[in-house]
Design goal:
This is Flavin-nucleotide-binding protein. InterPro entries: Pyridox_Oxase-rel (IPR024747), Split_barrel_FMN-bd (IPR012349). It comes from Streptomyces fuscichromogenes. By secondary structure, the protein is α+β, with helices and mostly antiparallel strands. The protein folds into two domains: 171 residues, Electron Transport, Fmn-binding Protein, Chain A (Pnp Oxidase, Chain A); 31 residues, no CATH class. The protein is built from five helices and twelve strands. The strands form two sheets. Strands 1, 2, 3, 4, 5, 6, 7, 8, 9 and 10 form a ten-stranded antiparallel sheet that branches. Strand 2 and strand 3 form a beta hairpin. The longest helix is centred in the middle third of the chain and has 15 residues. 21% of the residues are buried. The mean pLDDT is 96. The structure holds flavin-adenine dinucleotide (FAD). Flavin-adenine dinucleotide binds next to strand 5, strand 6 and strand 9.
């Protein structure tokens, strides 16, 4: 039987309670999912030998888990210890009249939990498929899939999406109605967008190897 879906409202726990800039917080799980789906790189924070380590890495997800992968030699992927994962999208620079009020328009998510090492072969393949398809939809069917040796060399972690938080900032600077509005300075937002470029063929390819449609179609589309 399929497990129940996670509640539509994000839980407020000791770890997820927003303490500062609370007005930017959201408890809407749909916003969390939208942030996760808009990116494919996260930062995995973990304490190893008493020291913090924050590792940029790619991810995928299903309705209940974030999947992270890497070499079995990766110390950050040991699993079984508390981790904190963040996903961040920068939408623009908020340029205020005062330096103090400068900021960033963003969407960000933080997931807290203890990641589990996936050992079941079927679950591992599913997780790796989700992870591959998250950043490169269509590649799981197109490229050669991992063989037994490659699977053995890969760690896959599953982190529950249960305990997560979201913060979003949009809009103009906050000092438009304060005393600094009298300064006569320009203020506003400088938007930032990322887009996929045209595919660049590997020089080692035989000439005229066609670019698959699922890759070609992404050129010029917006990322994030
Ligand atoms: C691109 C970017 C730039 C930023 N720049 C600054 C900056 O220069 N200075 C600054 O003070 N803040 C900045 N922030 C906001 C910052 O991420 C924190 O939200 C804020 O500083 C509060 O931090 P805190 O340690 O007091 O968190 P707390 O409010 O104590 O955090 C409690 C809990 O709230 C949740 N939470 C906190 N922050 C976030 C978040 N960003 N996304 C999702 N969940 C969150 C987490 O679950 C966390 O455990 C920036 C955010 C982004 C995305």
């Amino acid at each position: 039987m399929a497990p129940d879906p996670l509640p539509p409202r994000l839980p407020v726990t000791d770890r997820t309670r927003h303490r500062r800039l609370r007005e930017q917080g959201s408890l809407d799980r749909a916003e969390l999912e939208a942030i996760l789906d808009a990116g494919f790189v996260c930062h995995l924070g973990v304490v190893i030998d008493g020291r913090p380590l924050v590792v940029p890495t790619v991810y995928g997800r299903d309705e209940r888990h974030l999947f992270l992968h890497g070499s079995v030699a990766g110390r950050s992927l040991a699993g079984g210890t508390p981790v904190c994962v963040t996903v961040t999208h920068v939408d623009g620079l908020v340029l205020a009249r005062s330096v103090f009020e400068h900021g960033v328009n963003y969407r960000s998510a933080m997931i807290h939990g203890t990641a589990r090492k996936v050992t079941d072969p079927e679950e591992k393949l599913t997780g790796l498929r989700l992870l591959t398809e998250h950043s490169a939809p269509g590649q799981w069917s197109y490229a050669r899939r991992p063989n037994r040796r490659e699977l053995a060399a890969t760690t896959l972690l599953a982190l529950s999406l249960e305990e997560a938080s979201v913060k979003i900032r949009t809009g103009a600077p906050d000092d438009g109605d304060g005393p600094d509005a009298e300064l006569g300075l320009w203020a506003g937002v400088l938007p930032l967008t990322a887009a996929w470029g045209a595919p660049m063929a590997d020089p080692a390819l035989p000439p005229n190897t066609p670019v698959p449609g699922h890759i070609a179609r992404r050129a010029g589309t917006r990322h994030g």
